[in-house]
Amino acid sequence: MTTTASATGATQAALMAGSALRVVVVNGSPNRPSKTMGLVDVVLGTLAEMLPVETSRIDVYELGQAFTGAVERDDVTPDVEAALRLAESADLLIAAVPVYRGSYPGMFKHFFDLVEQYALANKLVMLVATGGGEHHALVLEHALRPLFGFFQALTVPVAIFASAGDFDGTTLLNPRIHGRIQMALTDVLDLLRARATGAP
């Protein structure tokens, strides 16, 4: 818990000093390119218009056999350990998944099975998902938010979902989704300001 508190303090000091926000995307899509990352690209582009950002991306399907074969954290190789630490040290974590059989993909869940239990406590997490139709949007509240609730993370109240009909290929077209992204990122900025100033 001490490590988490120290990291949070460092984040607040960096933001007050005008440093770039460290954003880490954990991408749970197996496809290249993907609608999921097309949606995330809009989120990142919009966020970059609001404040300086430093973006990293972890593609769970590209972490290899050292990742898929790991049962515990001690089993992972240095490159997988680096990916886990990158996610744990983010100022803002973006969890991005396509809906698979009513939930997030197993490889995405496996990544978070290896994350240290308290490493995400009080961390800002934005939930992003794509699916074939609007009925898949329930994955945000019934699967993703409870997952990060276990970690005691602070999930952004407004989550973002886009269905297949909202895209042309991987390009997001629906203006309603663009508006929702603006709402979610406004929440992020408000939460960051509150943390940086120590407001209750």
TrEMBL record:
It holds the Pfam family FMN_red. Transmembrane segments: none annotated. PANTHER family: FMN REDUCTASE (NADPH). Residues 22-164 form the NADPH-dependent FMN reductase-like domain. The keyword Oxidoreductase applies. Keywords: Flavoprotein, FMN, Oxidoreductase. This is FMN reductase.
